[in-house]
Amino acid sequence: MKNLADIGLIGLAVMGENLVLNMESKGYTVAVYNRTVEKVDHFVNGRGAGKNFIPAHTIEDFVSKLERPRKAMMLVKAGQPVDDFIELLIPHLEPGDIIIDGGNSLYTDTIRRTKYVESKGLLYIGTGVSGGEEGALKGPSMMPGGSPEAWPHVKDIFQAVAAKVEDGSPCCDWVGENGAGHYVKMIHNGIEYGDMQIINEAYHIMKDLLGMSADEQHEVFKKWNTEELDSYLIEITRDILAFKDEDGEPLVEKILDTAGQKGTGKWTVVSALDCGIPLTLIGESVFSRCLSAQKDLRVAASKVLRGPAPQFEGDKQQMIDDLKMALYGAKIISYAQGYDLMMEAAKEHNWNLNLGGIALMWRGGCIIRSVFLGDIKKAFDNNPNLRNLLLDPLFAEKISAAQEGWRRVCAAAISNGIPVPALSSALCYFDGFRSERLPANLLQAQRDYFGAHTYERIDQPRGKFFHTNWTGHGGDTTSNSYVV
Ligand code: 6PG
Fold it and tell me: 105 vs 182, 200, 255, CA distance in Å?
């Protein structure tokens, strides 16, 4: 075993353990440290026994065991613990050494930390790591950003441990400066929320409108997973639906219907609001989790508020086929919206994002991995300046083909009182996006009526603003001089 480690990792929770085992299996020597130091010995004498791990019992000890430039990676809880470890590491590091944060940090924190760490003569990387425990062990998707000079030093390690697609390309590449890696990971998580929500809405319709058992639904997901919806989340849903509790009943039906969330979906939506990008599907997905969490209130409301009793009289197989189209159409919208947001954020933060490269990073290893991402990669390969995924000829054709069934699904759900916020808002976005004229002319008139906010006219050049004295007793002064 080498005296010095190629990289060191702080944080031996299950993700950390699995990631270092993955690194070691690729031929790297890894120094390991944990705040609760007993965990270090437990690991090197347990899962790490006989392997190329160098245990460290203090931060100083940890740093001294790293080859230069030192690569100190943290997989600790996002937030204050990351700042705390940065402070502990800095006094022991030398110019050119690299601090890496592999947690789900908020990108604005990563922007701040990159600046701070660089001000100390060091380099910083904030990297998204997706794929859960299994991904960390067998090959996660990794989305690094931060100080560009740091990338050549970690590239080989990161790309060796990352998942690979069919042609062997790693699901890891440099994303961009400062917070770009964590931003892209945040968008990944937002899309994860969206993919999960639309699957949940399909499940709800199958269960409550079509009256299908979990086993019957399992068969549908099993088939879908061999077709264009082939993805990790469809695959695990297939398996969840087949999973039986000790009494032989489907376990899924015994789980309390209140969703948890750690915040990355919310951050995505906050960013969308800040950037002014309509990220409706992910927004509805976050709010759906919030509504599910209001369990007591819903239980009370269910006693007083009545709606239609779901009743399906049509062709069941047709509705199942339509559901697949609804999921497919909504998925296209979700990714189109997520990419739209990334493009806008990239402009604001001066990130030169490789949009096709991001699809490739998500193609394997991560929670949203799917065949679909291969098509997104192709779309950006065909046209690197593609302004919106919906304008790619292939996606335009696919969404057009999906809309008939998708509309039937939303209509049936709405008339039967089954909530489909993500599927239906995505359809509304599609209809809005493809509308040359929306009713915002009336909205502008209203704004001008009550607040003299002015409007532009269709028969005048853009940028020329008008105000009308709608009531005959308003003044001529406009309030166009401020934007909140
Ligand atoms: C991943 C996941 C991972 C985590 C989510 C869960 O990419 O591996 O996204 O980061 O499981 O953050 O998020 P919620 O608890 O908010 O559902």
Answer: 7, 27, 29
Q: What per-residue confidence (pLDDT) applies to 483? A: 58
| Gap between the Cα atoms of 167 and 391, Å rounded | 27
Does the CB atom of residue 78 touch ligand 1 within 6 A?
no
260 lines ligand 1 (CB under 6 A): yes
Cis peptide bond upstream of 91, omega within 30: no
131 lines ligand 1 (CB under 6 A): yes
Under 8 Å between Cβ of 141 and 172: yes
- Which of 105, 142, 262 has the most ligand 1 atoms within 8 A of CB, as the residue to mutate? 262
Token reading at 384: 């690197």
Ligand 1 center–CA 481 separation, angstroms: 43
Q: DSSP H helical segments within 10-96, as ranges? A: 14-25, 38-45, 59-64, 80-89
pLDDT at 480: 65
Q: Could you please report the per-residue DSSP string of 445-482?
A: HHHHHHH---B--TTS-TT--B---TTSSS-S---TT-
Per the confidence metrics, is the pTM higher than 0.85? yes
pLDDT attached to residue 478: 77
CA distance 343 to 187: 11
Q: Which residues of the chain have pLDDT under 50?
A: none
Per the CB < 8 A criterion, the answer to whether 9 and 34 are in contact is: no
Q: Could you give the CA distance from residue 10 to residue 85 in angstroms, rounded to a whole number?
A: 9
Q: Which residue's CA lies nearest to atom 1 of ligand 1?
A: 130
pLDDT of amino acid 476 = 73
- Return the H-helix or E-strand segment holding 190: helix 180-204
User: From the CA of 104, how far away is ligand 1's center (Å)?
Assistant: 8
Q: Ligand 1 centroid vs 11 CA: distance in angstroms?
A: 18
pLDDT given for residue 198 in this prediction: 98
Q: Which residues of 131-152 are buried (b: 16+ CB within 10 A; e: fewer)?
A: bbeebbbebbbbbbbbbeebbe
Catalytic residues: 185, 192
Unique residue bearing structure tokens 């702080």: 10
pLDDT of residue 323: 98
Give the Cα separation of 121 and 147 in Å (integer).
11
Distances (CA, A) of 121 to 9, 30, 73, 91, 343: 21, 24, 17, 11, 31
Atom of ligand 1 nearest to the CA of 259: 17
Is the CB of 259 inside a 6 Å radius of any atom of ligand 1? no
